[in-house]
Amino acid sequence: MTDSKYFTTNKKGEIFELKAELNNEKKEKRKEAVKKVIAAMTVGKDVSSLFPDVVNCMQTDNLELKKLVYLYLMNYAKNQPDMAIMAVNSFVKDCEDPNPLIRALAVRTMGCIRVDKITEYLCEPLRKCLKDEDPYVRKTAAVCVAKLHDINAQMVEDQGFLDSLRDLIADSNPMVVANAVAALSEISESHPNSNLLDLNPQNINKLLTALNECTEWGQIFILDCLSNYNPKDEREAQSICERVTPRLSHANSAVVLSAVKVLMKFLELLPKDSDYYNTLLKKLSPPLVTLLSGEPEVQYVALRNINLIVQKRPEILKQEIKVFFVKYNDPIYVKLEKLDIMIRLASQANIAQVLAELKEYATEVDVDFVRKAVRAIGRCAIKVEQSAERCVSTLLDLIQTKVNYVVQEAIVVIRDIFRKYPNKYESIIATLCENLDSLDEPDARAAMIWIVGEYAERIDNADELLESFLEGFHDESTQVQLTLLTAIVKLFLKKPSETQELVQQVLSLATQDSDNPDLRDRGYIYWRLLSTDPVTAKEVVLSEKPLISEETDLIEPTLLDELICHIGSLASVYHKPPNAFVEGSHGIHRKHLPVQHSSIDTGESPVSSGPAANIEQTHVIPSQGDLLGDLLNLDLGPRSTCPRCPPCRWGLWTLTVLIACNSVLLLQVWLPAVKAKGLEISGTFTRRQGQMYMDMTFTNKALQHMTDFAVQFNKNSFGVIPTSPLPVHTPLMPNQNIELSLPLNTIGPVMKMDPLNNLQVAVKNNIDVFYFSVLIPLNIFFVEDGKMERQVFLATWKDIPNENELQYQIKECHLNAENHKKVKISV
């Protein structure tokens, strides 16, 4: 009979009977009783009152019984810590048992019992097990160190267990190496700034040796560890890639994705023109394609990871687009993901195949999938300009089907095509207008209204069309109301004599009869513009619109780089960094792709991935031409640094006001966060103890941390340059700010600027290089006491060329001796 019999008893007084059986002299009876206890515990019954009786059963040579007792202890020790102490002697004794399975079982169980009193007794047995002669015991002890660290981190460090774990990396058994790596990685996540793994070429070589012989989960641990290593040069990166590449053919999809992660990171270090780089790209394609032959759930995980890879390196799968064609029996979540990847791989070479597929998908029965397919046709038109006409023709064919949701989605898509290619496909507007009455979705109605308003001068009955929408204005969604308001204002500006009543009606509905603040605000703005300055209104409302982007749904580059470092994990499925969905993850060290060691010379923006790099790379930007570019050709309008000095010509009055200004000025925003991918820089200039300073506050308003800050000035009128690097030695975390003072001197290259005190600045971090321009108050250049010897003053005055001297004659100014004295002093 099977063990299921233990789950079928519901007798009253069962606890009493179990207690008696647990104390039976016969081993078989005790074993049966313990099985019954575990079965009761499994179905949720409280059998904690049997704790002393179960503990007494620990003294046995039967491995199966011992496992059952240990299982019971792990479950109830936390609730009865005082009773659990009774089992300590048995644990310690079992840790010295001749049977390695019992030794490993004992140390594993002690690590799982989260009771402080027991962990105190665990140290000595654990130390012995870490040096046990049997590899099974050593690998179990390695994992136990990570569990113990979670309970009492300080004790693990004091007892030297971390050093013992590092020693296990050099173990002869590959599974011991894998578990040691897994334990150290787990501990490192709670100490992101510590270098517990101490990855160096020697240790990496040991890990690569163990990689070929350990189990699949051991391979995953080692590959994840390798992905955190930064090779010192291109040769070492290529060597590691060569030894990791065989893992791409592994049967376990998790091993394949971990290997892909390592190779994707190290591709950053390989020159793109090398033969090995291209060979590696070709080797990455087949394993990714193979992942799509698994179960739908595995396919979905693979597709989410492939989506990231295609955004980073589309050339890997550019020849495999047919793999992503949808099958009739694919679940909807797989279909949608395949569709997204198909669009990302669409190009001029394969657009005909893609459009044929999408047109087929648009006739399926699944409404959501059909909508996505129609939207995908529009994305193809926007992405591949040569295919735009064919895409528009396909959309018109779909509109002719008169299927309501297909027509509405097509109109939304065509609006975007008009935005991308203005004045090119307006001939189809008549066809769109034929379907006006069938539109009932807000997106489609808003799109059609936008088209009518934008091309009102080409539509004879535009006023009638818009007036038909106006009849049920208050029943429309806010999106439609706002679009309709703007469209009618556009129509009025294009045909003022014919639509005056219509615009008055919509403005009245939007302002006086509406309680929506957004709608009212826009209505009042239009009303004020039209009534006061129609010319300006025309410039604002009918201004040329920016072309929409080709890929609006691409992941932000820095986030994409971080997600590439998490391939094979939940982050790559959610497309979010771990700290966005893991509780208590604020301390997690955020990962970044490595950077070629020549990137500073070539002008690329380096991304540091370790504390050491933060210190090395934080320096004044070395080459002006590479990173700054030609700042003189950029539109860097100067900002006034002194809020109390009105803009004016640089004459004597301005100079006097600048001197009178307090040397400690209010911080002004020099670089807004919206223009610097989340980095905001505020600052001012000061002079302290004879030294000029640029006082700044850096604020991180992005989602990722920022490192590798550096600064450089363009040539300027006074030769101002920084005398030291930016003093930012630690990463600037999200929503944090740092205040710093940058000392300046005037020994740099000189070039006359307009205005004279304009300073163009470049600031670099791990995300990009950002430029801004500020005005330096002239009083910053003046010494504090202002004294000059009479002879030096006269000699300096005579050295000024005559053409630079200005003379003014003051008339009708009556002075007595006292006033004359005051004027002389003030000048």
UniProtKB/TrEMBL annotation:
Coiled coil: none annotated. Residues 663-773 form the Clathrin adaptor alpha/beta/gamma-adaptin appendage Ig-like subdomain domain. SMART domains: Alpha_adaptinC2, ARM. The keyword Ubl conjugation does not apply. Pfam families: Adaptin_N, Alpha_adaptinC2, B2-adapt-app_C. It is a peripheral membrane protein. One of its GO terms (biological process) is intracellular protein transport. GO terms for molecular function: clathrin binding. Its main location: membrane. GO terms for cellular component: clathrin adaptor complex; cytoplasmic vesicle; endomembrane system. It comes from the Eukaryota. Keywords: Acetylation, Membrane, Protein transport, Transport. It is found in: Endomembrane system. Belongs to the adaptor complexes large subunit family. This is AP complex subunit beta.
